[in-house]
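Please describe what follows:
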Amino acid sequence: MNSVHKSGHTYTARVCFFLLMAVSVLLPVSTAMAVPTRLKDIISIEGVRDNQLVGYGLVVGLDRSGDIILNTPYTEQSINAMLERLGINTKGRIQRGQNVAAVMVTATLPAFARQGTRIDVSIGSIGDAQDLKGGILLATPLLGADGEVYAVAQGGVAVAGFSAQGDAGSITQGVPTSGRIANGAIVEREVEFELSDLNTIKLSLHNPDLTTAQRIADKINDHLGMFLSLPLDPATVQLNRPVGYEKSLVQMLIDMERLEIEPDQRARVVIDERTGIIVMGSEVRINSVAIAQGNLTITISETPLVSQPAPFSEQGQTAIVPRTNIAIDDGSDRQLGILPPTVTLQELVDGLNALGVGPRDMISILQAIKAAGAMQAELEVM
């Protein structure tokens, strides 16, 4: 399909590239070796995880930028309940100040966080407050998924954004209705999990792969000199504590996590059509194909001339004499290129670059190669 674009007096018709599959036999290629990586960088220990906490609280001390009480009845109810716990009776009295805002407080409880340690918290307004700058979060219990209180947050809110307004306009930068309190919560309850008491642990791979799981198990067994580890599935490797092992399981893991593993990966090409980003893994292989990428460009430029009568002439009129220049580029200098069976990713990139292909056209070429069955890789379009 030809498409015509108009820009000023320039008309361009582009003819899409065409792809011819020449050879459909994949020749033997050499396997690219992965870069050795520490075991600790590619796995996590099952059971060692973070926990999400959430709570509801009040931010006070705002400069008339908090919730409008008449619009947010839950803010008024929270103020009255707080004051009653402090021995102040406010029943029947309407709160009209705008110095208080109802907020949701969230935090992440790290694994092995002990009582008394501090964690960061994030604050977000749930009412019609305009700015939390300068506010102070009152003591807020943070609950886990089981409904138990694991931390208590309190402190001054740091807001990155700001808002300013006048009679005829306003300006807002960032998000002034959310903020953060560094080390703003104190852990009150620990998650019961003792790693040193386990006799069997499971290692979870960040990128599940059967070959990588087998390499991890073999590396651990070779290091310990006994068969103690085996892959359970592409994402899990089981490690058993040896009988009579004098050190703790934690000390054994410290020795294991420094082992170097060569992770394997599936052949994959990831394409982001919005930004033109292409990421190809080192295992991508292309069968021998012939590719031509050509454009038909027709440029029409108008450079009119102005014809005027001679000076002091009684006859004659000013006239515009049209002049048109037409240039045609049929892409005859773009020849059919053959990409041999790719041995490395660099050769694939060099082959496409040799055709003068840009990122946008390269995306279409890779999609066409995959459609022709010549790409031995998974194609993922974001």
